[in-house]
Amino acid sequence: MTSRFLSALALGAVLVCGACARNAAPTQIGLDTAAMDTSVVPGDDFYNYANGAWQRATEIPADRSNIGSFYRASLETERQTTELVQGIVQSNPAAGTNEARIANYYNAYINTAAIDAAGMAPAQADLARFAAIANRTDLSRVLGEQIRADVDPLNATNFHTENLFGVFVTQGLATPGEVLPYILQGGLGLPEREYYLSNDQDMVRLRTEYRAYIERVLTLAGVNNAAARAQRIFNLETQIARGHVTREQSEDIPSSAAVWSRAELNQRAPGIDWTAFLTGAQLANQQRFAAYHAAAITRLSALVASQPLDAWKDWLAFHQINAHADVLPTTIDQAHFAFYGTTLNGTPQQRDRARRALDSLGANLGDAVGQAYVQRYFPASARDEVRTMVDNIKTAFAARIQGLAWMAEPTRAEALRKVETIVVGVGYPDSWRDYSRYEVSATDAYANAINGERAEYAHQLAKLGHPMDRNEWWMTPQTVNAVNLPVQNGLNFPAAILQPPFFNAQADAAYNYGAIGAVIGHEISHSFDNNGAAFDSTGALRNWWTDADLANFRTQGEALARQYDAYEALPGLHVNGTLTLGENIADVAGLQAAYDAYHASLNGREAPVIDGLTGDQRFFIAYSQTWATKMRDEALRGRIATDGHAPGMFRALTVRNIDAWYTAFNVQEGQAQYLAPDQRVRVW
141-155, 352-366, 535-549: which has the minimum mean pLDDT? Predict the structure, then answer.
C-alpha cells in the first residue's frame, strides 16, 4: 500500500459471485487453512505460521517477478476483464463508441504481424522531429512537446523516462483552492539516481548492462553509430542522475511546497528556453508552477545548456523508442523485456500479448473498460457493504484519536475533522471520463499509444483554472489497488480489490476485517502517517500540531523505523525503515483501527470459534495471509532500493505492535517475535 502525496498504492479485487448469498449468514472461515504451517510457533515466526505451507509449495510463475495475494486477486480480475474485452471485440461495436475504441485498441495491440511489418515507420515522424533540432530553443520546445502527465508521480522519484520533466496537476501543497501544474524530475532509464551513482557491485553490473541495452535498442531500430550514441546517452543520463534529488528528499513533502512564478523559472532555472519549453508543453499562459523537485529543476535545466546538443537528440530518440517498445517491432519489445523484466527483476518469461493488451487498455482507456467492468461484475450491494465497513473503521479511528492521552485538544480537534471529512470512493467514480476526442486506430498500435498519452495530458491540463474536484479518482475500477489522496483528503478503493483474498461476503467478520478491513484502515491511516499528517482536513499543507504532540508523534515514527531497519531481506540487505515509514505507520494504525471496528461489529457478542480458531486468531491470520509474498532476489533488491513499501513478509509482522495479538496466540517473552510492551509502537 502506498500513500505519498497523491500517489497510487497496491491492493485487491472484485466480488467473484456478485450478489449470491449476500443476505445469508456468513458460513465460511475465509482463511486459506491449507496455506498455514501450524507446526510453527506463532510467537517465533508468525508469517510462516500463517503462510508456511504456501511459501514452500508456491512457485513464482515464469512471467512474474513475484507472487502473493495481490496476484491471486489479479488473476480473477484478469479473467473477468479478458472475458469482457473479448466480448466487446466480437460484438462489432458501432463506430465512435467507447466499445469501438476498446475493440480497435485491442486489435491493433495484439496484431504483432502488422506491428512487425510496419517496422520503425510509425515512429519516424517523432524521430525526425528530434533529428531536426538545430539549437537550444528547438531543444527546449521539443522537450516541452514530450511532456506527459501521470497520476502517480511520487510513487517513484523518476518520472516518465522519455521526459526530462513531468507535469502533474492538482491543488498546490501550500495553495489551498489553487490547482497548479507540478514540475517533477525525470529522464532516467534506470529506476532512480542510485543506479547510476552507487558503487555497490550489483548497481555497477546493472548500469553496464543498461549501457549495452541502449546500444542494442538503437541497433535494432536501425540507428547508425549505435555504440557511440549509446555511450553519449548513458553519459548524459549519468549527469541527469546527479541532478536528481535523492529518494529521501523526494519523500520530504513539507520541504517541497515551493511555488515559482513564470519569471522565477527563468531566474532560478536558467539553461532551458522556458518560453519555448512551455509553448511546447501547452502551458504558455500559465503563470504559477509547483516546483516539487525544485533543486532538480535548476540542475536539469542547466544541463540543457551545458550538455552537447547531439547527446540530447540521441537521448530523445532512444527514450521515444524505449518508452514505446511494446508497440514497435517484436525484436525491440523482446530486448526491452530482457533488460527490464529479466535483468532488473529476474523474470524469465514475458507475459503473453493478450494479457499485456489489457494492461495497455487500462493505461489509455481505463475508465471505458472500468465502466463496463463494474456494470458486469460489481453489484451495488457490494459497494454498500464496503461503505459500511469504511464508516465503522472511520468511527474506530476517531475513537482512538479521542483516547490519546498525549494529544492536546487543538491537535485532536483537527485530527477528528480530517477523519470526519475524508471523501471515500468505493468501487468506481460517480462520473466517467469522456474519450470522444481520443482517436483510436484499428491498425496502428504506436499511434494509439501516443494519442492516449496526449489525451491524458489534455485531461490533466483541463483541470487548471478550476477548483479541485475532491471526488476525482486516480485509479481505474479494475485496478487491484487502493490509494490515499492527502491533497484531496480522499480515498479510492477500486472494485477489483473487493474480492478474495481481501473480501468475501460469505466469510465471517473476523476474516473480512483482518483482510480488507486492514486495507481500509491502512488507507485512512495514511492521512496520519509521517507525510499525511502534514496536511490538514482541507488538504492544505499546514502544521496543525502542537510542538509537543509533533515531537511525540515523531518519536513513535523513529521507533518504528528502527524496528524495520532490523529486518534482513537478503544476507546483508536490510529494509529501509525511513523510506518505508509512511507505509509502516499506516499498517500499524490501520490494523489497530480494523481490530477495534471488528470488535465493535460483534455488538458485545462472543465471536464464534471456527475450525478451532478464535475470532481474534482468525483476524490476525487473515491479515498475515494478505501479505503472503514470494519474490525473486533481483526484484527483492529493487524493492528495497526504490519502493516505499516493505516487502509483504515484513508487513505481515505489523502484528508485533498490537497487544491483542499477544493475547490471541499466547506470545511470551523469549519467543523470537516478542516485543516488550514499551517497545511496541502505538502511533495512533
Answer: 141-155
